[in-house]
Amino acid sequence: MNMGTAMTRDERPAGRVSIVGSGPGDESLVSPQVRRILEAADVVIGYHAYIHLVEGMLHRERQLVVGKNLTEEIERAALAVQYARLGLQVAVVSSGDAGIYGMAGVVFEYIARQNLADAPEVEVLPGISAFQAAAARVGAPLMHDFAAVSLSDLLTPWPLISKRLRLAAQADFVLALYNPKSRKRQKQWVQAQEIIRACRPGSTPVGVVRNAYRDQESVVVTDLDHLREEPVDMLTTVLIGNSQSFVWNSRIITPRGYYAPKPDGPRVLVLGGTHEARLMARRIRERGAQVTLSYRGPAP
Questions:
Q1: How far from chain centre, in Å, is Cα 121?
Q2: CA-CA distance, 12 to 88, in Å (whole number)?
Q3: 268 within 8 A of 284, measured Cβ to Cβ
Q4: With 50 as the cut, is the pLDDT of residue 243 above it?
Q5: Which of 61, 48, 55 minimizes the C-alpha distance to 1?
Q6: By the 8 A CB rule, do 270 and 163 touch?
Q7: For residue 114, what are the CA distances in angstroms to 43, 118, 121, 233?
Q8: What pLDDT, on a 0 to 100 scale, did the predictor assign at position 12?
Q9: What are residue 101's phi and psi, to 5 degrees?
Q10: Residue 234 near residue 185 (C-beta atoms within 8 A)
Q11: pTM above 0.70, yes or no
Q12: Per-residue pLDDT reduced to its tens digit, 24-57
């Protein structure tokens, strides 16, 4: 592609940056709109591994395809804006959804910080996120309120991550954990489990999904008591149920409340705010009884 022809700003065609989510890795799960953007782009920019996942949609004979390293997100954003200001159609590739721990925020923040008078148009096209793909593999764990937390402290201090994790666990959110462990970051995964176990019984269902919808996919349904036995890494998403989640036929289900106990069913009062009491209340409720959990002091 020849980039050498000089034009004034008024003569240039309108460039655009399209930040696209390529989904979990299976090309069949890429949206038709994202596929059209990738096929029509003049320039495609992304992390090397993400470029590989969409290789079948690219046309290298007429496109400029730029692969960058994992820590070069700002460089990717700057390059995308540079080419778009030349009037080119630029696609920036994120895995999963570009707006969830992806490149969307990096590009928007770069443009905002540069305060460009001739900033190109920017659009974001969604994809299937990692926690959505993982949830589909283990059943229906995200049917009620949930919180996504990345355990990587590369950009966020660990004390802040642990605080958010503790509050989310105490609030009984279903938890979707990204980036649980890396070669250099080991102890945070142990600490994260300790934080969650302080708030939830060991029988809480857990889904451990690695490489969802990719080669070498691994799907495990376990519980908090046995989570430490499962290998995890940066390609793993961990889903931890709330106080109502249960396992049926090797699938995690978090009730939304559609199947309420019958008004004329048995009523049970469970006294105490311990993990054991909450576990007992959950099991009784699953059998169709109306349960009231009574305890003194703040909710556990």
A1: 26
A2: 9
A3: yes
A4: yes
A5: 61
A6: no
A7: 21, 11, 15, 35
A8: 59
A9: 55, 30
A10: no
A11: yes
A12: 989 999 999 999 999 999 999 999 999 999 999 9
- Token look-up 């949930």 returns 146
| Length of the chain measured in residues | 300
> Mind listing the pLDDT tens digit for each residue in 214-224?
989 999 999 99
Q: What are phi and psi of 36, to 5 degrees?
A: -65, -40
- Cα 247 to chain centroid distance, Å, stands at 22
Rounded Cα distance between 278 and 39, Å, is 53
User: What are the tokens at 37?
Assistant: 């953007």
